[in-house]
Amino acid sequence: MGETAVQAIIKEERPDAPLRTETFRRARPDIAGPDAPELPFPIVLSGTVQHGFGRGGKDLGCPTANLPDESITPMSSVTRTGVYYGYAQISPEKNGQTILPEKDRNVMPMVMSLGWNPFYKNERLTAEIHLMHDFDTDFYGHHMKALVLGYIRPELDYTSREGLIEDIETDKRVALKSLARPAYEKFKSDSVFDTT
Asked: Are 89 and 145 a contacting pair, CB within 8 Å?
């Protein structure tokens, strides 16, 4: 599978990511992964949503929830950098009060970028999760649980913001189609989530 994200960190340098090409874009499949999750998946991540760089929603039209560094260890120790898919849920409570409306409490499909975001030249590994749902409000400070079920593609560098946005939109479509398979869909009711 190649070097894990933690192995790359140990080298104490940000790894170079391949440049996204038109050939890569044209060759992208509609569905990622096998018909059912295979090891190391599923991987459970959880933590309090924190402020990130603020680029996802403002710059890319894809708001993301950022987990604390220690929350991504289960992911980074067994997988490589890139884009993943699965499900996530935001806790309705914050500071002992129920804040999120009912419609924002469901288990939702998500895509996640694990890496250094080479287009922006990040200096540390991050996990940024985009829940495919329109929230009425932000959920900083809320607890989030995520179940990562599969891998879409490697982390890439881009020559333009438009190319990055195009791939993000493709990632979302691939994630939704991949999660529509019965062996993945059943994870929406996994015991890791609060589905009562």
From this structure: yes
For the question of residue 128 being annotated catalytic, the response is yes
Q: What are the structure tokens assigned to 17, written together?
A: 């990511």
Ramachandran region of residue 93, left (φ > 0), alpha (ψ -120 to 50) or beta?
beta
Cα gap 70→86, rounded to integer Å: 20
* Domains, the chain: 5-188 (2.40.30.30)
CB 102 within 8 A of CB 133: no
The one catalytic residue in 128, 155, 166, 185 is: 128
Per-residue pLDDT in tens (0 to 9) along the chain, 196 residues: 567 766 655 555 555 655 555 666 677 889 999 999 999 999 999 999 988 655 544 454 567 888 888 888 888 777 888 999 999 999 998 888 888 888 999 999 999 988 876 555 555 678 889 999 988 878 889 999 999 999 999 888 777 778 788 888 999 999 999 999 999 999 999 999 987 6
